[in-house]
Amino acid sequence: MSPRRGAGGRFITDEATKRVRHDIFGTASAESAWLAGLIAADGNISPDLKRVGLAQSGTRGRLLIEEARRITAHTGTVSATQPAKGNVSYGITIGSTKMIEDLRDKYGITPRKTLTYKWPPCDPSLVSPFLRGYVDGDGCVGIYPTPQGNPMLHLSFVGTPSFIQGAMAAIPAHGRCRVITRCKSLQEARYHGRHAWAAATWLYADTGLIRSAKQQAFAHYQQLLRTDPPKWHTWAIERQRILTLMKAGKTPVQIAAETGLPVSRIYNLGWQTRKAAAE
Predict the structure, then answer these.
(1) Domain boundary among 210, 227, 244
(2) I need a surface site. Which of 9, 82, 96, 122 has the fewest CB within 10 A?
(3) Beta bridge mates, 144
(4) What's the pTM value of the predicted model, to 2 decimals?
């Protein structure tokens, strides 16, 4: 909120602004990193460097707005705008030069960032919650059928080439990058199937953060894997178990006896498994 003029012509700070946690981004926490990621994706900094804005659409977006208000102790007005088509857009604005300074220094977030925002050099422990907030704000997590009718997880998000390259280097999964035809300044990171599963498992590991609609989509996919797992998922679990036993010094025959898997299955995992076990 903006200051208002009091008695004698002095500007005084609105009480609602006083209660805001202006130092939230100066603290190294998963919640502050998540919110910084959300702002990086869907927020804005005013050109005069005095206000932070955040907008989300629909009932799912409203939940993200309310979580942002909780984290920052925001008690001001939530705006609601109904476009000619589509869902209601909800937004908040916070007047805080301290927030803006910390967002710039710790996460590289500045005004007019859409086509210029680079991957920030944030603390390694905050990379996952930061990217989680970014995906929750402007990414996509969904379940789609394969040609065979099996459920397949999809995870994607858009950013500048620098941001996409940095994010994909941080995510412990193999994804694909493509150039956005309608905007050459942006790229999209895409993860499918077992790669999306690995990426989302890492992204949504912290159960203390908000259960967003995208996290709930992944949780639904996890349930599908438990009740009707595709072959790649079963193979991935077997492979990880075998790798762990190999690194512990077990022979294929010992592993077969312990896991109940055929010795031939262990050998058939190929040289990549044996190479990884030796690393």
Answers:
(1) 227
(2) 9
(3) 152
(4) 0.77
